[in-house]
Amino acid sequence: MSGDLIEWADIVFVMEKAHKSKVNSKYNKLLKHTPVVCLAIADNYVYMQPELISLLIQKVSLHIHLEG
């Protein structure tokens, strides 16, 4: 994650409360109008694990419309 990505984003999703805390503390000034949403997904999945993808789709779709 970088300041450029934070400035570009309309919303930031994180998996755990600890992630949200880190993002808020590091990028506080850049997050004035950008919500940070914690999805409450334990960070114990491997990259692209099907169960993780399913959880992400389920939880993110509560906040934004996903196409496809």
What features would you describe in this structure?
It contains 3 helices and 2 strands.
Helix content: 25-40%
* 3D shape: globular
Low-confidence stretches: none
Rg from alpha-carbon coordinates: 13 Å
What's the helix count? 3
Strand order of the largest sheet: 1-2
The SSE string, one letter per element, is HEHEH
- Major sheet attributes: 2 strands, parallel
- Which range does the strand content fall in? 5-15%
Overall number of strands: 2
SS-based structural class? mainly alpha
Mean pLDDT: 94
Give the termini separation. 26 Å
Summarize the structure in short:
With 68 residues, this protein is mostly helical.
Core attributes:
68 residues; mainly alpha; two-stranded parallel sheet; 40% helix
Please render the helix and strand layout as text.
Elements: H1 3-8, E1 12-14, H2 17-26, E2 36-38, H3 50-60
Parallel strand pairs: 1-2
